[in-house]
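Pipeline run #58 for the internal structure catalog. This entry was flagged by the ingest filter as a single-chain record with no existing model, so it goes straight to prediction. Upstream metadata was stripped on purpose; only the residue string is passed forward. Reviewer on rotation: M.T. Logging verbosity set to normal.
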Amino acid sequence: MKSISGTEANPVVTLEWSEQIGKRVRTGPWTDQAISTTRKILDAIAIGQWELAAQLVDYWMEEAKIVYVIYDVWTEGFRTWLTDQGVSEVDLSAEIGRLSNLLAFPDGTPYETRSHWEELGAGAGRLGNMLRALKLTNEEAVTALDDLREGWRQLHDRGADMMAGLLTFVSHRFGEPAIETCYRFVLEPYLQERYKPFDTREQPYEDTIYRNLYLSFEAMRAHLCGPDRTGDLELSEHDDRWVISFDPCGSGGRSLRGDTIENTGSRAEPPYGFGVTSDRYDWAWNEEGICYYCAHCCFALERWPAEQWGHPLRVIDSPRYPEETAGESPQKCSWTIYKTIEAIPAEAYLRIGMVKPA
């Protein structure tokens, strides 16, 4: 008989409220945080922890919500910035319509977000309710979870592509250097809300490390990283740093490599033609071949924090197109979080056009 009063086995993971971050979080060591919430749900189903599985489905949606809301905020920011630069509503609507058709879902319907997000939420609610009520077999539960994950994958991937497409439109209209100006306008509200707590003028660097690591794991699980697109990450710890790797990152990495699930090519190539840097810029690690979408990590996690309070938040190694994104062993993207400010190397500052403070 399935348990209705808890289980004797230790839970595969637990959820608790974090006073430090101000939201619900997954507990466990950093090595465990690298395991996707998708996989944790599967583990809970496998050993009959049905109530925990239901709660994890809800938390899985909480992770997805982060990316969904960010893309929603950015899309409105792009529209406002482009309008302020004199792009007519006719031209802007035509470009968004073109991208929506180009990024159509597998069933042929043009890309749009609201109805698909509502459907995803309804599916998650049904799955959680059926798990909680013990109305599913293991096989049915696994199938329903995979359907949920696939629905989010389709919506998520097109959201990332839409951001890349709008940035390419910016570059075509105003030139590649305008991407920095656009980023400063579009990302500012998001940066202030998400990254202002890392300001070392407000609290010591060491006190920000837990938040820094946790938000990194949480967001990248939501991007469905990894070859199976479940959200699994790789982690290595060193004396002075943690390194989180993605093979590939579910947003920019998948975009540059091509979509192996839908069998579509690199978004830097036709019919997409989404831009990569053709010159060197502080907001793109002063490297050519950085996709415009991936450059937001440089601006948001390195350049902007270093401007604001003196140091990069995370140090990122983003593969360059095409030499590091093609072939049998394309390079992984990695995020490095240093354990002290002093450990951040001088090179991390130089490549974003700055000098490490004395």
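catalog note: Residues 138-174 form the longest helix (37 residues).
catalog note: The chain is about 50% helix and 10% strand.
status: ready for reviewer M.T.
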